[in-house]
Amino acid sequence: MEILSLQDFLEKMPFTKKADLVADQTTHGPYGENRTEPDASYIRFCQTSGTTARPLSIWDTAQDWEWLLENWIEGYRLAGVTPGMVAFYAFSFGPFLGFWTAFEAGLRMGLRCIPGGGLGTAARLHALLEHRVEVLCCTPTYALHLAAFARREGIDLDRSSVRKILVAGEPGGSLPAVRRQLEAAWNGAEVLDHYGMTEVGPVAFAAAGEPGALRVLEERYLAEVIHPESNNPALEGALGELVLTPLGRSGWPLFRYRTGDLVSPRRTREGLVLEGGILGRIDDMVIVRGVNLYPSALEDVVRTVLEVEEYRVSLSTKAGLAEVSLEVESNGAIGVGAKLEAAFERAFSLRIPVREVGLGTLPRFELKAQRWVRVHG
Questions:
Q1: What is the pLDDT of residues 325-348, one digit of tens each?
Q2: What is d(CA 181, CA 185) in angstroms, rounded to the nearest whole number?
Q3: How many other CB atoms sit within 10 Å of the CB of residue 269?
Q4: CA distance 212 to 371
Q5: Which CATH number fits domain 13-281: 2.60.120.10, 3.40.50.12780, 3.40.50.2300, 3.40.50.720?
Q6: Which DSSP state fits 279?
Q7: CB neighbour class for 15 (10 Å; exposed up to 12, middle 13-18, buried from 19)
Q8: pTM over 0.85
Q9: Is the alpha carbon torsion for 326, 329, 332, 333 positive or negative?
Q10: How far apart are CA 107 and CA 84, in angstroms?
């Protein structure tokens, strides 16, 4: 195939889907054939979480790994993080690209980096206070869990030096209610979202003072937003699927990768901005009594009820129709279930049943939260 221009590329190059990568690694296991260098050139291994399909195993060359770190360094700069700041990474690193790139990029740009892998919640809170941490990196769910644990244990986060909370792995960092709750819990620290995927790398970051949107690193990615069904370009401000071509990861080349993530694109002087961050996934939407319901939209409503500490959504099918219900843990307040049901009614014009359960009943998540469960009946 001969490609002579960008327009030529967009017209002739087919999309790549995750199913294509899974099929390649299934047929040509364990790593597939999507590699351009000899085996000895690949030095860094990462793996996808496997929440939507078989986990992908990906190796990067030293050159590609440097490119990935440079993306994160640019993200730190956008967030207003500067050399010399103390940063704490509150996750168990495992084989996940996002955690390692965030940590190693922090080292490269001169942050004072403290790894929190292997520590329990109490030990992490102790380290945050003792070492006067200024930048906290974790999932939004875990940042909420840290704050709730501190409250229960009488640990005063007003003594915290944390001024920036960089969150990733879930859409919560771009949800206004989640962000407000985190900022209130962490003594006014600025909450800034990040978006990336193991398949493509660190893609977009919120800029300091602009927490409600993600800036795509367009000098590093060719980004498209398409209508998921027609594949035509989405209009500015309309909901569309993000499609990415990394421009600096030649050892693991991907062309026009359909992320499955729904965004609302907007053009600014700084480039392409994703308004409201990642708004959902194509395969996550549930139609409940005629209403399109996305997990991120439901969470934004849940977090307006400040007494909720944790929740779980049960998805069932009755007479061929989808239904959802919630279990919630509260901090001991009375009437939380009724308050949340009323909030759902206002937001979605839906009656969504809510059942209150005891504190500590529901699972806690350090990595991506998996709060939606399918039940029979």
A1: 999 998 888 899 999 999 999 988
A2: 6
A3: 4
A4: 23
A5: 3.40.50.12780
A6: -
A7: middle
A8: no
A9: negative
A10: 10
